[in-house]
Each structure stands twice: as C-alpha cells, then as structure tokens.
Amino acid sequence: MVPRESSERVNVALRIGDASVPLEMDVPARPVKLRRMLPVIRQMSNSFISSGVEQLTAAGSEISCRAGCGACCRQIVPVSEAEAFDLRGLLDEMPEERRSAVAERFSEGMERLNSHGYFERLAEAASASDDRYDEAVREYFRFGIPCPFLEDESCSIHDSRPITCREYLVTSPPEYCASAEGEGVANVRHFFQVKEALISLSQDKTRPELPYIPMIAVMDWTDKHSDDSRELTGREWAREFFDSLARFSRPPGD
Ligand code: SF4
C-alpha cells in the first residue's frame, strides 16, 4: 500500500480592494517540486474564475465559450515549465495507442513550424517589441495547428489543462475567435492572473528562452530538459506563489 503523502493546512487572506478573501488549502508538508502544487493552483484558479464569472453574469454579460468550440485551441497556448513536465507525465502514462496518436500530433505540429523557422522568429520577436511579438502570436494561429490534446473540438485533458486554457474566456460571439486577428474578441480580464504568476514562478531564469513553453513544443522541450527545478515545502511554495500573484493582479477598476 502506498502511504498517503502528509499534508498541512495553509490559511491565506487575499486582499481585493478593501475586502479580504480567506483561502484555506492543503499542501504537501515535505519539500516537493512546483508541479506537485498544480492541483492546488488549479483549484484556486478555478475558484477565482468562477467568482469572476459570477460577477460578470450579475452585471449582464455572458460567457460564450462552449464545449465543442476549440477555436482558441489553435492559439500558441503558453504553458509554465511546471505544467510542461506535468503534461509530459500525463502523456507518458497514456495507454500506448493513445500516447502514440497524441505524440504524433505534437511531432507533426513541430515539424511544420520548424520547417518555416517559426520558433526563431518567435524568439526574436519576443525580445524585439510587443508589436512584433503579437504578430508572431497571430502568425502561429494562421498555421491552424490544433493543440495535440484537442479531440472532436473538445479538450481531452480537461481536468489537467493548463491555467492559460482555464483563464481564456470570452463574452463575444464564438465565431470571432476563429480569426487570427481576433477582431471583436472580448476576453474576460481576470483580477488574479494565475497564468502569469505561475509562469513567472516556474521559469528557470538561467534558460535563455521564452518565459513559457508553447503547448505544441511541450514534448520536444521535455525531451531536451530534465526537471531539475528546486524543491520547497507546500507552505514555502504557497508563500512564493502569492508573492508572484500579487505582482500579477489588476487593481480594482483597472
Ligand atoms: S489543453 Fe485542452 S483546452 Fe488547452 S489548448 Fe489543448 S485542447 Fe484546448
């Protein structure tokens, strides 16, 4: 029998404007890699998103994202390093037939992008200017490469999908999302930007690449990098995560 990992309860009070929102979470008591904190971070992201959506609904807006609409799953989809290793673990645990089908989609996408020198352009654009980076992101969309986990226009790894996918919600008509230009797309802006906080916390700053890994490059990237990231207790990770989250929060009314 595998012993249950010991955990401890951490209480946090988040400040939103003048309000204080209490949060309680069970985190690993022993030192772990950041990827072991993902279930807690996903749960937190889900509850931030739900409360944001409730407020939007109360204000008369409606989220137009629906199951079966995978338009946004052809975007570049930034993934944190911790999530990249987690997704790789998920892929490797799939039954062989399914694993090779998904792996094949990763390889085909990478081959296409590499044959057009896309990643070099993306890296150059990211270090040049916001405008050039935005254009490189639009160029990715124009390749029309679906996320390898997209099946029948639905996410096949819904519970483990990256924070980027959780936070991507729109209130505009779904057909607008099918254009690379994104004209008319009304994205929901989140108060707590968990994606940015996680990417920043997870990034190994000694690596001279982008701060994130594009979803399509997850398999290739995890082939080339081993997870030699640091280990902290859940309580220490929680402290660092909330420090990072504080840097990526929108002031009320912004
Ligand atoms: S992980 Fe799921 S939601 Fe995210 S891009 Fe891929 S298919 Fe879409």
What is the compact description of this entry?
With 254 residues, the chain is α+β, with helices and mostly antiparallel strands.
Please, could you describe this protein's structure?
With about 250 residues, this protein is an alpha+beta fold. Helix content is about 45%, strand content about 15%. It contains nine helices and eight strands. It has helices at about 40-60, 80-90, 95-115, 120-130, 130-145, 165, 195-200, 220-225, 235-245; strands at about 5-15, 20-30, 30-35, 80, 150, 155, 215, 230. It has a two-stranded antiparallel ribbon. Helix 2 (about 80-90) crosses helix 8 and helix 4 (about 120-130) runs antiparallel to helix 5. The longest helix has 21 residues, at about 40-60. The chain binds iron/sulfur cluster. Iron/sulfur cluster binds near residues 155, 157 and 165.
